[in-house]
Each structure stands twice: as structure tokens, then as C-alpha cells.
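Format notes (please read before filing issues)

Several people have asked whether sequences and C-alpha cells are stored in separate files. They are not. Every record keeps both together, in the order shown below: the sequence lines, then the C-alpha cell lines. Line labels are part of the format and must not be stripped during preprocessing.
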Amino acid sequence: MPYMNPIHETHVSEPGLLVVDVAAADDATALAFQQLLADRWATATAQHTTRDAGEPGVRLRCYLDLRQELTAAAVVGPTMEPTLARP
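Then the structure lines:
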């Protein structure tokens, strides 16, 4: 995949560490998904998305640490309801 940077060994050096590459139709969708992850786990978030010439949508990469315990608030946290386009 020419548009993705290589994953560094440090980012996946232990069980529970993840690299998440996201492709979405727009900035708002990609950043909302990233926020849902960050609300639940320790996450190094991206500040902006990128666009690749000739590729649809936007992309971002974030890094998660699942080794932390989830709090009750994180488990019951907000949900993202889908919205329907209105004519």
C-alpha cells in the first residue's frame, strides 16, 4: 500500500499495543472514530487526516494501548448514531 508509512517495531513491541489505520469518506468521520477509540483506551491520536492523490476519502493512523483497564464510564460511554442523508 503506497500511501501508508511503515509500522515501527516500537509501536507493536508488546501484546496490547496496536496501530490502527483508518480510511473514511471525510475528516469528520475519521476523527469521530478515532475519538471513540480514545474515549476507551490510551490512544496517541492524529491531529488531522491525510488525502492521497488518486485515492478516495481520507486516512489517519493512531496508536492504541489496550493494556490499561477500562473504566465503567468508558464501557458505558457515548455511542455514535448513524445519520441519514436527507433530500
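For reference, the curators noted about this record: The first helix runs from residue 27 to 40. The helical segments are 27-40, 72-76.
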